[in-house]
Each structure stands twice: as structure tokens, then as C-alpha cells.
Amino acid sequence: MTGAEAIALTQRYQMGNYSRFPVTFVRGEGSWLYDDLGKPYLDFLGGIAVAILGHAHPAVTRAIEEQAGRLVHVSNLFHVPVQARLGERLSNATTGGKVFFCNSGTEANEAAIKLARRWAYDRHGEGRHGIVVLEGSFHGRTYGGLSATAQPKFHQGFEPLLPGFATVPLGDIGALDEALTDRVCAFFVEMIQVESGVRMHPPGYLKEAETLCRRKGVLLVADEIQTGMGRTGSFLASDRFDIVPDVVTLAKGIANGLPLGAVVARDEVAAVFVPGTHGSTFGGNPVCCAAALAVMDVLESDGFYDAVVRKGDRLLGGLSEIAGRRTDILNVRGVGLMVGAEMACETKPVAAKCLDAGLVVNAAAGTILRFLPPLTVTEGEIDRALEILSSVLPAEGWAS
Ligand code: PLP
Known about the structure:
The chain has helices at 3-13, 46-49, 58-70, 81-93, 105-124, 143-148, 152-155, 173-179, 205-216, 237-240, 267-270, 286-299, 304-324, 348-356, 379-392; strands at 25-29, 32-35, 40-43, 98-102, 130-134, 165-168, 184-189, 192-193, 199-200, 219-223, 247-250, 261-265, 329-335, 338-343, 359-360, 362-364, 368-371. By secondary structure, the protein is an alpha/beta fold.
């Protein structure tokens, strides 16, 4: 099938909810993607923070092949060795508590909402079901995740949403203090708001929020779906900000491209999920878990996180240098290999131009050019990406 045929079929038979570039990728290796005509592209998007070890990573491929040849699915009515091992690894890398497996980020948040409400119900009875979220948050597209996503553009035409969600402004600790009443069970927070433009909290905010949650008996739920799995140079971004969440949600890069999500909660919180309270047919699928175990092996290998920090600094430094020579890049920010350049123009045309030139990046929140390369990216590939970006930016500045 040619790329043109794939595009025509997609347009004819799939719903139009995605805005796709007219490019058909057929193969990937490391930080590189290849289209149907064999043209190479440097992938600094990684399937939106998913291909954290790059494409076709040999250890992940081997783990998938071995598990697929042994057992693909068995249901959660039985025990599965790879799932058991992954639960232990994720617990040890996060809260030290217990894990629930699902298939995506929004499902992980959905489970965390149910967990928080049930935890409060078991302790206090009815009425303590409130969930506080931050303005600009992104927690997913199902009704729970969408209700927690405080961005009206995603809500339009889908109301009514779930009741019980309250939004507070970013960085306003006084507003958070006021919102965390005795009707609230949880505060959901992304350590960095990536989808809404790689937005960082003011220094000290997260620590103060953690203290408030502890004092008021409110669960601190860290949505690490995009920031977790080593992206910022530690397993969780919470680690980098010295935050200890009660509940962590993970997905995206967890299985390097296979659909898997996880919620990890402190033992006392996790204990409220007793048989019948929640479940998923596919959650914790053996093949996905095998891939995730291979991911964990690489993340936990010697010096891996140090290299992420070093390469992130190189990317951030290189982008800052380009920004210093121009007026159309207003700001460059990020942590580890999660970096955004804020431009004075819409960035979708800039991303399209980069794509033409063989660099995959994406436009986030209108004016942000977002870089999420595989964590295995090389320094040479970072330099090449910077060169491509420089080459597509016109000397006179991008017309807005
Ligand atoms: N939470 C955050 C912070 C995300 O970035 C995303 C996806 O971009 C989600 C939740 C939803 O994840 P999924 O698309 O796997 O449902």
C-alpha cells in the first residue's frame, strides 16, 4: 500500500477526530522514522512521549516476541508472572505501595478518581468526593479525565461533565488552600503541565501544595503520565521536585509503545480497591508487561538518568542559543528531555516545515514547539535536530 492509499483509506473510513500530517510512517529504528518512500525523519516527538527508548529497541522487541510466543492474554482472574514482576518494579520505583494496571493514561486517571473517592467514602462516608485540579490541566479524554481537565475547549459540546470537580489557578497556593475543604478527597496535579505548553509551577509551589494536602488529609495524586518513566531525568518528575505523592498515574512510555497504564498508590489507599470495585479486561496484558519490564531494565541501568539530564541540558542550551539570535522565540523551558520553545507565532506551520525538512516535533498549546525525543537520543542527533530547526526558521523571523 502506498502512503497516498493509506491516507485516502484513513480519510474514507476513520472518524475525523485527528488532524494528521500527510505523512505515512512505515518503519522506525532508534530516534529515526522512515516514511513509505524511505525518507528518514529524526523523531523528536516519539509518538507523543511514548517511544522513550526509541523505535524497535532490541531488548523491548525481544521481550515482546518472547512473551507473544508464550502467552498473550489470560485475564485478571488468574496470576501472570510478568505482571507480578512489573507490579513489584513500579512499586519500588514510586510510592512503595500497590499497583492497578489499565491500558492508557486517561484510564489510569479514571481509576485514580475512583480510588480517591472510594478511599474518602470508606473513611468518612458520603460527601467527601470533591476533586481539585489546576487551571490548564490535562488529564485525559474519558469523562473522568475530561472532568479533571480544566480547559474549556475540550469540554465544548460534551457537557454535562462529572460533578464534584473544582479548578484553582496555577501557582496560587492561597486559592488551593481555600479549595481544599472537608468535602475534598484529592488534588490532581501534573508536575509540569506539558500539554498546555510545558508550563512549570512557581518555585516552592509543589512543596507547599504537598504540605497542604498532608495537613488536610487530602490525597496528592501526581499525574506523571507524560512526565514519568524517566522523561525528566529521574523515574518520576516528583522525585526531581522532592514531592512524595500518595497516588501516581503512569502510561505513555511505560511499555515503549504498547498500550499500558498504571496507578500506584500507598498501601493504605490501595487497600480500598477490593474485589468488584474496579477492573479492566486487558489491563496488565502480559505482552505489554513484558515490554515494560524491558523498559525498566534500561531506565534503571547505570548512568541512564544522568545521561537524560546531560542530553536535556544540551537540547535546552542549543534551543536557548537559537532563541538568543532571534526575536520569534520568546522563551525556552523544560526539564530533562521534555522541552518547549514558546514562539511569537502559531507553531503548527513551524512543525510542518520541520517535518518537511526531516524533523518530527509538534505544536502544543498554539504557540509552543514541543520536543520529546527518545531518552536514548544521542548528542549528535540533538545537534542535528537543532541544525534542522535553524535551517527552517527564516532569518527575518517567522511571520505570525
Ligand atoms: N494525562 C496527561 C498528563 C497526559 O499528557 C495525557 C496524554 O497526553 C493523558 C493524561 C491521557 O493519556 P492517554 O492519551 O493515554 O489517555
